[in-house]
Structure of Periplasmic chaperone for outer membrane proteins Skp:
Amino acid sequence: MKKLIICALCAICGFTTANAQGKFGHVNTQEVMQAMPEFTKAQNEIKALQDQYEADLKSMQDELQKKGEAFDKEQANLPENIKQRRQQELQDMYQKIQQSFQDNQQALQKASQEKMQAIQTKILDAIKAVGQAGQYVYIMENNSLPYISTSLSTDVTAQVKAKLGLK
């Protein structure tokens, strides 16, 4: 009877240990992302938007500078009420430039987040598919851990790229 109980316990422990041992993988999502045409397209779109915002701000700054220089030249000959009005106009232009800069930064950040979110979602879906197909217990980000044993963990970066149709 004791032998039967010991055998049963050994079988249960062996079964539990076998199930606890699983496959582990790691992936370099940065490498995957940089290989995606969507990433390059998103970067180019964000850069174009940034260039547009910078050009608009430069134009506004140039206009402010011209008006400021013109005001400096003629302010001695202007009546006080006109002088005050022009100073207020210059101050309003300066504030408009500051507000435009802040608005542009927020819009650029929002556009970047939206474009990158779609790419990251696509990568995560591919990682999940590779994990399920390969029956991995975990797939961890390669660059976020201080150490990964490459002999105990499988690099699934190539599989994720293949799942996304990348080379």
About this structure: Residues 26-145+152-164 form one domain.
